[in-house]
Amino acid sequence: MRSRLAAVLMALLVISTAGCARFPSAAAAPGTSSSGAGSSTPGVSSGTGTSGASSSWRPDSTGSSTATPTPTPTLAGHAGRYVTVELADSVPSAANCPGCVSYITQVGDRLADRAGVTGVVVNDAVAGFTSSQVLDQLGTDGVRSRVADADLVVITVGANDLPDDSDGSCDPDSGCARMAIAELRTRLTTIVQQVRALQTAADAKVVVSGYWNVGVDGAVGRQNGQQYMTTSRTMTRLFNAMVVEVAASQKAIYADFSTLFIGTDGSADPTDLLASDGDHPNAAGHARLSDAVVSALGR
Q: Could you tell me which SUPFAM superfamilies the record lists for this protein (predicted)?
């Protein structure tokens, strides 16, 4: 992939959020690499590559790469190629994970390898992006062209849209939380519809993912207290349920990022799958997310 919680959490969150966010944060400059992120000049890889950048209950505001953007190649035609495009916040950008290969690069490479063709991965993820900003991306010629050419588009966004609950005013049972989820449903539905309308590849697919937590998790999350963990996990379940419904209604494919991190009952500790910020996946986490997408595709 968010609630910051009741008054009890407030003091803790004031301390912990200094470097935190997948709550709405100013969009950081996109991290780029051989498969890195960017709204205008995305990272592109052929075959394997690495990527870098950051997402809001999550530490997002500072976790971006400073790598030089890779020039965008022409992506016309599909003969002998499998083109994968990601539209997202910081999660697929390998933020705060130096040397990591982003899960979207791994997905594209695995699918291309199985098809016996060259894999081209375009990571248009941008740290801090909200669903509204992804919609704005879809209004630009470059992103529209890349989506039109894609065999697979993966969408991971929404955590940065959720309201900051640091003052305890917007817990998952509140009207503002329900309103935020409802508004997100509308925007995410529009994103999927626009992607589908643009795609031209035969048998092109759209995958929409949830999150394991829309906030920080593991050891870092526990430092914020049990109320924070309970609230952020509850908000995540509400968010993921909404994404499942959007995917089903739009004939997209849902990728479950939660079960492989925290188990079916939410009791597993994901610390070993997270970067030091407790927010973004580490190398093992990216491998796990790659498995989730490939499994969702039935490959």
A: SGNH hydrolase
